[in-house]
């Protein structure tokens, strides 16, 4: 050790270690407990309180949950369960209610007789909501009385005490998130609606109500009640597609202290959509319950096909991949002590659940096939077609692509690769058109930025199988460039760039190309999205020049703000933009299209304002494209994430599938909400 390094440790003793008491750690590092302080973290406060209500319902003590969005960013969540205990806790010497609201890892989920199964995030629950709320009020209906206690930023303002008598039971938590903690206090009605709908599907027989009371005269109400459980969920997921088996398979059975609920249905599509849940927590990476399901599904289908003579003795068994095409399934398990892999609970690790699901689902699905021969034949036929397509895709890989191409040994000629060979440092820009590709190649940092221009629109993979997909040159070039292969040979660890960035024009064609690429990634490279490798570039919409000043605006609102700062009104800005475009058209043969126009706003003396609306990336020179869209120090990008797998699947099916009426209805409903779109 060097001399100066020895000196640096002087004074670093026990007194340098900070100990945070109570809820202080939550306020100091909120991201450790709710993921982030963005909109996602804000909504997580609601999920935590609702999860407590769901726990009561799963335990059989509640059947009604109510969520109210109130003025001043207040949220109220109620249930008709037992009510949080209010007697004095033997260890903390304060009421159990105050203990639950002020102590981390305190509640009915850590042993004892509170809950046999429970969800929630890492067991921190409502105490974290309390810590991150400017004000929280707890109202407990229990033992014939109503108990009320108020908190401010996690600190009790009074003691829990009974107020009036009541003949009901339950808990109501009303809170106002702390504006000094969160980036935004705006709750999304749609996001809350989707989450509560999903929880209602997963908790059979529970009534969930939500009401938006934030604006007078604009109140919205919604109620959910699904007595069919996940079977109803499957029906909703397949409502926009043609199905193979009219009867939805469903089983719900308890085993030991656990419960297994599975529903499935095959459709005419080519994609698989399987959602896994453990104690109502979604597991995007699956786990032991998914492994048990897949094993039983493949074995049961093969056994049935052999017994009925659909598979001859000389025929090879269907593989697990053959049973995936067109499969929509939900696997929901409830268990006392779930073991998750990873901080986000993305994968269930309990080994016993593989055996439980394999046994319960396998037996029930075998009976289903015997009892529904018409549907069984349709399912087997779908799997046979999938097997034929798999063999055709394997042949396509061997004949269409040069040997070793998919492993990246021979990169496509259109790719301008980067010099770095460390995938964590590298990024691939997928650019629309050769013109924009040329600007991007000249403006990029060659050390870590690679450019792949696309010619025209890629194939819509929602409506085609892999063998035809691999015949599309643009898709083939992209697969080769990424270097991780596709289908049953896909290996995400071989990804050559850890940031895949879609960069398209801000017009109808650009939006369509972006959607086609996202469909490709979601359907055939979902791990890229799950691991946070896919981004959408945000090029500017406008360049605003006043004299030597140059500003870039990424939205109409930002453009108007820049002009306001220059003393230009919004109405006059539209006239300036119109005159700017007319001036450009008049001098279209001149390569310098950035000409000043007549003065519009009389309050800006002798100042000439020019507004250029970028309709394509090719309109920017390399320096502008680098400065606005590609420079890591200045650029803005959107990361592509999946918050609700069922909703995402439904959206892709509706936008890119064969159901034209559903797509037409979507366009008519949302057409007026589209911004920054040139046709």
| Tally of contiguous helical segments | 21
What is the rounded Rg?
29 Å
Chain oligomer state:
single chain
> Could you describe the largest sheet, including whether it forms a barrel?
9 strands, mixed
Q: Please indicate the count of domains.
A: 4
CATH fold-type name of the largest domain: Heat Shock Protein 90
- CATH homologous superfamily name of the largest domain? Histidine kinase-like ATPase, C-terminal domain
Structural class determined from secondary elements: alpha+beta
Overall 3D form: globular
Compute the separation of the termini in Å: 66 Å
Would you state the CATH class of the largest domain?
Alpha Beta
Number of strands: 24
Explain briefly what this protein structure is.
With 679 residues, the chain is α+β, with helices and mostly antiparallel strands. Helix content is 36%, strand content 20%. The protein contains 21 helices and 24 strands.
Fold blueprint:
Elements: H1 3-8, H2 24-28, H3 31-34, H4 39-58, E1 64-70, E2 74-79, H5 96-102, H6 125-131, E3 133-142, E4 145-152, E5 155-156, E6 161-165, E7 170-177, H7 189-202, E8 207-212, E9 220-225, H8 230-237, E10 249-255, E11 258-266, E12 273-278, E13 281-282, H9 288-307, E14 327-334, E15 340-341, E16 347-348, H10 351-371, H11 373-400, E17 427-432, H12 434-443, E18 449-454, H13 466-469, H14 473-482, E19 499-503, H15 508-524, H16 526-530, E20 534-537, E21 542-546, E22 549-553, H17 556-565, H18 570-586, E23 609-613, H19 622-630, E24 637-639, H20 645-656, H21 660-670
Parallel strand pairs: 1-8, 12-14, 17-18, 17-19, 19-20
Antiparallel strand pairs: 1-2, 2-7, 3-4, 3-7, 4-5, 4-6, 8-9, 10-11, 11-14, 12-13, 15-16, 20-24, 21-22, 21-23
């Amino acid at each position: 050790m060097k001399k100066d390094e020895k000196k640096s440790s002087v004074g670093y003793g026990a007194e340098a270690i900070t100990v945070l008491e109570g809820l202080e750690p939550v306020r100091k590092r909120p991201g450790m407990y709710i993921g982030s302080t963005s909109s996602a973290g804000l909504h997580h406060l609601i999920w935590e309180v609702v999860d407590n209500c769901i726990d009561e319902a799963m335990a059989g003590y509640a059947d009604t949950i109510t969520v109210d969005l109130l003025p001043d960013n207040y949220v109220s969540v109620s249930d008709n369960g037992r009510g949080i205990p209010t007697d004095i806790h033997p260890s903390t010497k304060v009421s159990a209610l105050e203990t639950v609201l002020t102590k981390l890892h305190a509640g009915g989920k850590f042993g004892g007789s509170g809950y046999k199964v429970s969800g929630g995030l890492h067991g921190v629950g409502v105490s974290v909501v309390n810590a991150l709320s400017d004000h929280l009020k707890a109202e407990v209906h229990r033992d014939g009385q109503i108990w009320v206690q108020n908190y401010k930023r996690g600190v009790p303002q009074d003691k829990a005490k009974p107020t009036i008598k009541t003949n009901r039971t339950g808990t109501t938590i009303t809170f106002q998130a702390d504006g000094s903690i969160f980036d935004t206090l705006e709750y999304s009605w749609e996001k809350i609606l989707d989450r509560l709908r999903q929880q209602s599907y997963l908790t059979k027989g529970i009534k969930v109500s939500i009401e938006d009371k934030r604006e007078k005269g604009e109140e919205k109400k919604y109620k959910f009640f699904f007595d069919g459980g996940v079977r109803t969920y499957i029906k909703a997921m397949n409502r926009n597609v043609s199905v193979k088996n009219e009867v939805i398979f469903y089983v719900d059975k308890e085993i030991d202290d656990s419960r297994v609920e599975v529903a499935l249905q095959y459709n005419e599509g080519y994609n698989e959509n399987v959602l896994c849940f453990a104690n109502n927590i979604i597991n995007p990476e699956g786990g032991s319950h998914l492994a048990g399901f897949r094993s039983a599904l493949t074995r049961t289908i093969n056994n049935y096909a052999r017994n009925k003579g659909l598979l001859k003795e000389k025929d090879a068994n269907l593989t697990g991949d053959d049973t995936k095409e067109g499969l929509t399934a939900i696997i929901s398990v409830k268990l006392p002590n779930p073991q998750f892999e990873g901080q986000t609970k993305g994968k269930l690790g309990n080994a016993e659940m593989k055996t439980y699901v394999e046994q319960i689902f396998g037996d029930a699905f075998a009976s289903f096939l015997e009892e529904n021969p018409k549907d069984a034949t349709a399912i087997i036929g779908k799997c046979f077609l999938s097997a034929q397509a798999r063999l055709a895709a394997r042949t396509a890989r061997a004949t269409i692509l040069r040997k070793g191409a998919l492993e990246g040994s021979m990169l496509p000629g259109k790719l301008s690769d980067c010099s770095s060979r460390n995938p964590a440092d590298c990024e691939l820009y997928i650019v629309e058109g050769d013109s924009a590709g040329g600007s991007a190649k000249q403006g990029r940092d060659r050390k870590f930025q690679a450019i792949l221009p696309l010619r025209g629109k890629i194939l819509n993979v929602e409506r085609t199988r892999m063998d035809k997909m691999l015949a599309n040159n643009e898709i083939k070039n992209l697969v080769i460039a990424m270097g991780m292969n596709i289908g049953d040979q896909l290996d995400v660890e071989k990804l050559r760039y850890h940031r895949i960035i879609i960069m398209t024009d801000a017009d109808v064609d650009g939006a369509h190309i972006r959607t086609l690429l996202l469909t490709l990634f979601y359907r055939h490279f979902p791990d890229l999205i799950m691991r946070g490798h896919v981004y959408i570039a945000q090029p500017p919409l406008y360049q605003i020049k006043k004299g030597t000043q140059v500003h870039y605006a990424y939205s109409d609102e930002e453009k108007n703000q820049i002009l306001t700062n220059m003393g230009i009104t919004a109405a006059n800005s539209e006239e300036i933009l119109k005159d700017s475009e007319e001036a450009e058209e008049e001098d279209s043969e001149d390569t310098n299209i950035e000409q000043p126009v007549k003065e519009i706003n009389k309050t800006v003396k002798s100042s000439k304002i020019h507004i250029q609306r970028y309709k394509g990336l090719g309109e920017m020179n390399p320096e502008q494209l680098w400065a606005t869209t590609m420079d890591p120090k200045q650029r803005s990008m959107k990361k592509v994430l999946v918050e609700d797998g069922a909703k995402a699947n439904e959206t892709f099916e509706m936008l890119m599938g064969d159901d034209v009426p559903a797509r037409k209805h979507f366009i008519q409903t949302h057409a007026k909400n589209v911004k920054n779109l040139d046709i």
